[in-house]
Amino acid sequence: MTIFAATALGIAYTLAYATGSVRVAEAWIEEGPPDVPVLAGYATIQNATAQTARVLNVSSPRAERVEIHRSEITENTATMTRIGELPIPPGGEVRFTPAGYHLMIYGVAPPPAAGEKLPLKFEFNDDRMVTVEALVRSNEAPAGVTRGGDQVDGKP
Amino acid sequence: MLKSPLSPRLLAAALVALILGAAAAWLTGRIELGRSPRGAEGLLWPPPKTLGGFALLDQSGAPFTPERLDGKWSVLFFGFTHCPDICPGTLRLLERASPGLPADTQIVFVSVDPERDTPAAVAQYVGFFDPDFVGVTGTPDSMAAFTRSLGVLSMRTETDEHGNYSVDHAAALFLVDPRRRLVGIISQPFTEESVSRLYLDIRRFVEQQG
Ligand SMILES: [Cu+2]
Question: pLDDT tens digits, residue range B46-56?
Fold first, then answer.
C-alpha cells in the first residue's frame, strides 16, 4: 500500500514534470527609426519540461516574417548569424539580449511606435505554441520599468 | 618635446615596440590595444595612417571628402542600417557619451553596406539616434577603398532566400585627429564611460605632442 502510494506519487510527479510549461517572458521590441526594414525583438524563453524544447518558428501577424539571430562581438568584429532552430535545455532558459540572441522582425508596416504591442507566436518542436504581446519601447528605458508580454504555453 | 623620465633610447625602444605591435596587429587583421608610455590605452603613436584620397557621401548626399576631417576630432564607427541590434546599441552609447565630449568632436557613422544604404537611408537611421551625427556612405568601390585604407575588414554574409544578408564588420571606434591622422582605436567591449575616458586620454597625449 505504501509502496503503491509512493509509486503513484512518483508517476504523478514525473507526469507533471514532463508536461511542465514552456514560458516566453519579458518580450519586447526595440523601437526603430521610421521605415527601418527590420526591428530587433527580445524575450526570455524558459523550459520547465524534462525535454529540450526547440523553437522552430517565430511569427507575427504584423510582420512579413521573423527570424532568430545571434549577434556576437569577438576580437573587435561584429557578426550576426541566423539560427535555424533554437534549443532550450530541459529546466533551462535562453535569454535574448542586445548583442546576443535576438529576433529579426521584418516588414512591419506601418512601423510600430513606442508603447504599442505586437503579438509574437513561438512554435516549438512538440506542437507547443506560445503567443506573447511584445511591447515596443526604446532601449533607453531602465530595465524593469517597462515590461513586455509574459505568457505560458496553453498546451495541457 | 616630450618630457619623460625615460632615456631617449628607452623611449625610442618603446616607440619601436609600439609601432611593431601596431604593424603586427594590422597584418594579422586584429586590432590590439596600443599602449603609450603614458598608458593611453588604444593610442596609435606615431600615427600609422593619414586619411586621404576618399570621395564619399554624407547623409544629405553632399561630398564627404578628406577636408571634412580637418580642424576637428572624429570618432568613426562602422555599421549598416539593416542592423537592428549591435549598431543601435553603439549609436545610443555614443549619443549618451557625446554631451560630455569636447564640442569639436564629430561622431561619424560609416556604412559597410553601401549597396543598400543610400544617403537617405543613412539620414533616417542616424538621425533617429542623434541628428548631430554624420552618416557616411558612397559607392561600393569608394567605400571599400576607404575601409581598406583604415584596415577595417567587412564581409557580407551569403544572401538568403529572401534576398537578405548581413555584414560582419569592425566593431571598434576609430579616432582621427584634426590633421586626419588615425591616432587611436577604442576596442570592444567599451562603455559610455570608457569611450569618453580613452578618447580624452588619447587626445591629451596627441595634443601634448604638438
Ligand atoms: Cu539580426
Answer: 999 999 999 99
